[in-house]
Amino acid sequence: MEMATGTPPAASPRFFHRITTEPEPSRDRLMGELAQFLFEPWSSGIMQRALIEVVLLGLVGGALGCWIVFYELSYSAESLAHALFPGLVLAALLGFPLILGAGAGVAVAALAILVFGRAPHIGRDTSVAVVISALFGLGVVLALSPDSPPGIQELLFGDVLGVRRADLILAALLAAVVLCSLALFHRQLLAVGFDRATARSIGARPRLTDLALICLLAVATVVAVQGMGNLLVVAILVGPAATARLFCRRMGRMMLLATALSVACGLAGLYLSFYAGLAAGASIAGVVVLLYIVAFAASELAGSRPGRAAGNRP
Questions:
Q1: Which long-range contacts does 103-112 make (Cβ < 8 Å, 24+ apart)?
Q2: What pLDDT band is residue 49 in, cutting at 50, 70 and 90?
């Protein structure tokens, strides 16, 4: 029986070792070592399931992340992920599906922000900060309590190497819900995001669109929390989309590039985790951030960011 931990099985980077120690390796041997370097990580079921998980995360993060970036909801996405954390923990403790906990967490956070935000001496920004911090702190206390069962801390830090088949089935179903919903609401999302004031004239409903986007964000968080954890989930939801926006104007191209980058970052993070013995979730998040920094520097040097010349709307 395979046991999953936060770090991958022991790796043997013989490819690099042969290159550095053998003066003139033959071409066939070099190709063989390269093939072994590329395929060796996927010989175990743990890494195979992790690969499927990061592909699902890439599909959801790439598609939904573009709308998060386009609607300028990156901070809201992080706040929402933190706000629903106690709901996830309570659902795990009580044996309920995580999606129910996520929904309850979002509802409680929205109600609390609405109540405190109407107080004139508090203000909306302050109420959001207070509510999010309080809910996240409550979730951390519950998750790190000595009475909590083993493994519940994974909701906080994630463990993509500990994904089971049942988790993959649930993630695939939720990913299908998110992608189908995005396809269904595509025209409304585009109309409201482009010009909220005139969206009603073409049949779009801004409030319904905003609510649908928040609900999809909550579902995507449930999909990603198993692999990335509550603290790092925003990296996979926002990072690839933000990188794609540096080079793309049209939403369709941006979503395709963001999805490809998200899957590539997940794959690179798993390779890094396997051969360097690092935590898989943190490795993926690190690759996402590094890619954005490099892409931003490249776009600045090239001076060809599409938003500069023609605005930020797709």
A1: 103/218, 105/135, 105/218, 106/80, 106/214, 106/215, 106/218, 108/83, 108/135, 109/80, 109/83, 109/84, 109/135
A2: very high
